Queue: 2 jobs
Job 1
Amino acid sequence: MDDEFKVAHGEAVGTVAAQSISEPSTQQVLRSFHFAGLGSALVTTGLPRIIELVDAKKEPSTPLTTIYLLPGYKDNVDKANAVLKKLDSVKVSDVALRIVESFDKNILRVVLSKNKLKLYELTPLKVAERIEKVFKLKTAVKENKIIIKTKKIGIREMRLLSTRIMKLLIRGIENSGKAQLNIAPNGELYIIIYGNNLEEYMKIEGVDTRRIYCNDPFAVYRTFGIEAARNTILKELKLTMDNLGISLSPRHLMLLVDAMTSRGIIMGVGRHGLVGAKKSVLARAAYEETVKHLTKAAAIGEVDPIKGVTESGIVGKQISLGTGSIKLAVKNINKSE
Amino acid sequence: MLHAEAIKAIRFGLFSPEQIKRMSVAKITVPEVYNEDGYPIEGGLLDQRLGVIDPGLVCKTCGAKAKTCPGHFGHIELVRPVIHPEFGKFIYLLLQATCSSCHRLLLDDNEIKEFKELIHKELTREETINDVNITNALSNKVKYIKKCPHCGAVQKKIKFTAPTEFYIENTPLKPNEIKDWLAAIPDDDLKTLGIDPNVTRPEWAILTVLLVPPVNVRPSITLETGERSEDDLTHKLVDIIRTNQRLEQYINAGAAQLIIDDQEALLQYHITTYFNNETAGLPAARQKTGRALKTLAQRLKGKEGIFRYNLIGKRVNFSARTVISVDPYINIDEVGVPREVAERLTLPFYVTEWNIDKAREWVSRKEYPMALDIIVNGQRKRILDTNRDEVLKELKPGDIIERQLVDGDFVLFNRQPSLHRISMMAHRVRVLPGRTFRVNDITTLPYNADFDGDEMNLHVPQSLEAIAEAKYLMHEAKQIFSPRDGRPIIALFEDQIGSAYILSLPTTKLKKEEAEYLLGLSGVYELPDEVDGAYLGRDIFSLLFPKDFTFETDDIKIRKGRLIEGKLTKKTLESIYKALGAKYGFEVLQDFLFKAGKLTTAFLTLYGITVGVNDYMLDEKKEKAREEIISEALTKAKELYEKYKAQELQPLPGSTLKETYEKMLISILVDARSKAENFIKSNYDISNHAYLMAISGGRGSEVNLSQISFFLGQQLTLSGTRLKRGYYSKRILPFTEPFNTSDIIDKGFVTTNFYRGLSLRDMFSHAAGSRDSEIEKSLVTARSGYMNRRLNNALQDYYVYPDLSVRDHDNFLIETIYGGDGIDPTKVELLKYIKKE
């Protein structure tokens, strides 16, 4: 490759990256619509998604995992459905029509829907057993109703209990929502599930652990480590940008993602992340929480080395980027007088 | 004067009372500011030893006048110690962490060692200590220690009520008790906590002497009425002195403890609000008018604070701002500067042995362009008619002349908001009559400017380095390709593309006079070969290419500088720019763009692109097609509904029956408009100029045409569903039939068009979508602005190291090779065209 095409030494690529990412987002109308991108799954996109990723929010608003299946499962609908059944979480509220509280008799009645029970292949007895096991309460089944005898408790406790019963998982995986089976263009079956409990998904037989993909960087970081998390953020950012129709050289996103993960953990760009990790007191004070940073620096006798862009600008020093990264020495030739 | 480059580092710390007294030039004791004669009182807050602000006066400390006196600090001796409010948390931490009797750190030797390492990591920021900081780590540890590991004393519980009250086992802890306690903490223990005891001793956070800032920090203003109005800080300091005095009187008079305590609390309040008038839990101190005082913390904080307003962004000289207007006949790297501006802006001219003749010429001129000032040995002097001869006589190498701006000088041109680096580029000056900056229309794209009253800024780089950087790095010609995606950002646009498209058609033929007019205007002084007694438009355009330019893609063929096949569209033009840039460099490309801009604009004066009602009116055939498309969609929708109702619909994987129906219905309805678009594509030609603009890529698309002439199509909400919100009866609007789930039209399938107008319910359907996106837009601007700021702050220190890795100024490695390949993002696209050769 010609040297002519290489980046110039000292080029402030960080600023270029930041501007390249944020400039189009102020120009275009970034619609925050949820799109039916994968099957009918609704995923946050647009600016809210970009901000979520860049901020390194610990809990993304729509964690979603794509589970590919092993050979033998990916082309067999019955077997794939068996995997799906293990993944798909069914709550009491999914099969219940309503829950009735009798405060005087200390009884909770859960009325179940026949159709729903059929859909999820459940019986009232199974549901009752589950409730009995988790809450350690006596239950009785009467046709479609489960009658739960509670201890003598107040109205408040009763309400709490009834909501907790409705949220009870009959089957499926903790911290996950609905799962659904989809068909890829190449005819392969795969599963999409709301949730990020990667470890649990991978324990299920038939799941291709090498191709599993989750859109939550922190979940990926916990299970696969920082490099995988870096790739996840990059991929998600790229996907979001592409969906918005913003053309952007991938190097800008790469730089951002590398900066966010170069310390071995995922750091956001805000005051608790990359900016907060700056050495310079002045740079931090100029960014946010001015007084806090200054007083803390004074209390412990901190030293600001004045090397970065913001601090140099404040004191009027030449910025050490770009042409400022090069120092010239002049050889003093004595002029013959 | 201290030169900024000499600053190696800045150390933060606390002033000890002794230091304060040492640096103070005046002890302030009098709460009054002026005496009866309106003169500053000695020992008052405007004591002339603290510096002067009135132009005539002389500073009593340094003897300098208002402009040169830097100001000097004074001090107030407080009768009782007072807690510095901003250090409340810090004091609390130390009280918790140290023994109440021996004042050692409540950690045993092992823990101390452990802790030292942790602190070291945090201070050097070697490792990421995300949520760990000394405060949290220490207070978590210390909370559970009941007994001092050093002297064995049982620890009592310390309580802290923000901002300044402390209790030990519910008895109040007085500031002087705290002071003694903190003073007894040994230096070694402070070091463990990461505190440098040579710079900061914690007891200094308890104030016994208060530093009074110089007067030029808090200047008083004289109103028109001759009344003087003091700065907020001065007001606050007056309060402090008064309260302090009264407290002293009470103590000397032996007043009741209760009264003294009250007065002490008042002093504490005044000092707290003096530092920060937004302290949580305290009422803000107010002016008589009810406005909260702006005290020290408020001066520093936030967007209008000292940091962001005065230190990060600074006001500059040698700049100009005015309205911009178009001029397609100045080059794209030029800027038309009004004479008035050029006369006032100057550039330094360094007189040397070699250019002294030129310098004399500058000085001797009596009208524009002339030299305005001369700087001899650092002394600036105006060059006037009265002293011109004298200046001329004494002119010698080493002098600096300040001359007016002339054609060809490099200046920086900028339009706000400066969202990316190409919002500020270097242009060559072209002095023109008029009062606006003149800009070539092609140049508006990177600035995102238009001419509806936009104003732009101009800066004149003064040093030789700055001029060189402007010329070689920021020059407009070097910014044709955007660093964002490597695509051209300075390029023909809108009707210029339409014009180029027409020119490139083989049927476009021009008369000799026309060809001469176009080419002459574009600065090309030759004619192409004649074809059948006329000149082909594409041959005329081809003259702008270099003679040996050969370039072929699937869409376009250029051989030896002649366009042989293909049409000029936005897409093909873009590939031409890249090829030209790759092969001939940016100067040639810039020249091409300039000439092509002039040529295409001039051609429009002959040909003209315009649209009329006829372009959007549907003839019988088209009207029939429109009706067919609509009725087809409606029948299909109805069939689907029947199927859905009869439960014959096969649900899509993962969807319920209802969801499946919705999805399939939406795809049918959305499809209807693409059918209209396809009809336009196959039935319209470029005699319809709206269509011409669409296919050439200049502006608009088939969507616009179909919405004007055919129908608007299905209106979707932001979440991609049909309109569904509304009444209990499942209808959207009150006048529609209730419980009609099959109603396609009511739920946003708009069959009317802009040409004939929307029906009432269609208007509502359309407005629902518009309203959604309008709301979204207003939210997005604020959010993206903040994201912009955070990203910039987070990434601004990263740059390319000579080995092409990306690092920050501490050599912290971010990327081993920039972008994985080390290629300049503005040249990525060009690289592809080099390889093709």
Job 2
Amino acid sequence: MPNLNDLKLRIASVKSTQKITSAMKMVAAAKLRRAQEQAEASRPYAERMERMLGSLAASAGKQPGASPLLAGTGKDDVHLLIVAAADRGLCGGFNSNIVREARNKAKELLSAGKTIKIYCVGRKSRDQLRRDFGNNIVDTIEDIAKPSLGFDKAATVADRVLSMFKAGEFDVCTIFYAKFQSAIAQIPTAQQLIPFEAEGDADASTLADGGVYDYEPSDEKILSDLLPRNIAVQIFKAMLENNASEHGARMSAMDNATRNAGEMIDKLSIQYNRTRQAIITNELIEIISAKEAL
Amino acid sequence: MAKEQVEFELVSPEKLLLSQSVDMVVVPGEDGDFGVLPRHAPMISTVRPGVIAIYSGKEISERIFVAGGFAEVTTERCTVLAEIAQPVGEIDKAAVQQQLQDAKEDLSDAKDDDARDAARKQIGLSEAMLTAIG
């Protein structure tokens, strides 16, 4: 029979764990709201950039000698995988899901005889990938959300990626992150950054009223400015989505943990009370039988 | 009939900074400043570091410094995508001068081309800011 004192201690410890998880849930909920607002606030820029890029790509992209960022290097031997996950754990399957997606892709590429390089964003993605692909990791960036997730962080990553691309270190670049759908659903996503893939209809070069844009100084010049900028914007978007997803995942994970702790406390309390009662009954029996024996 | 106006939008990667109807806006384009009035021909241009002037009537109502970016003009809209934007009145002259000083030191200390380019860019930016304050 379990000791009464032991049970009491276990209940106390589960209770304090529950306090922590419920506090973490609350914090995650507050951060989630902020992250969502931030993600929404950044949407206009990304949308407008996409619109411009769509029309530019349609008019300038088909010409020979277009930027390799748009047309690719003509081969796909070396792949760079940017794996964006969180810096911290305790957020359910969030990190593992992203890493699994990236790992599958990496294995697929390796078995097809390609070379892969991995750029880790966030401590957890590096920790989880180090075992399998330790030699393929070229760089890691941590603490991207500290003190706040700014565009400069994304620009740093983009600069690094672009300088690698210029040096001819890879041909295709894909970023892995979790698309935020709701607090309980985050979808691990792979998005190709280089060469640029236009989303939506490619024939956006004509305006709604049938007019055509003038380009100043020239469409190639603007495109060559816009494409690197777009990489940074896409990475920033991925980071923001990821941030929201992380807090969403943590919120639901902590909600589950709090509920489980509650169930455990109930179970332990019942056990505690039963044990207590059994001890009392036992003592009574002892007293009565002792009296009868006299 | 209501007076025609341009829908002017200033967007940074982090948020939509400004969205309002204005009479005219002058944008520092790569090849020189251009004014946008209603029914401007559609165009896309790069923006150099400089000042965007927003006009109400014939008066400048607001001056905003941008550190380069892109402008998209259609017949009724003008959208500027800028990474850094700051109202001219809020620029701290001493801080910018300090930045310029630092950047010049960086340039003389720079060891490779990348560092030199970065320093030159910063110098250009700071100088443009100082010109904006006037």
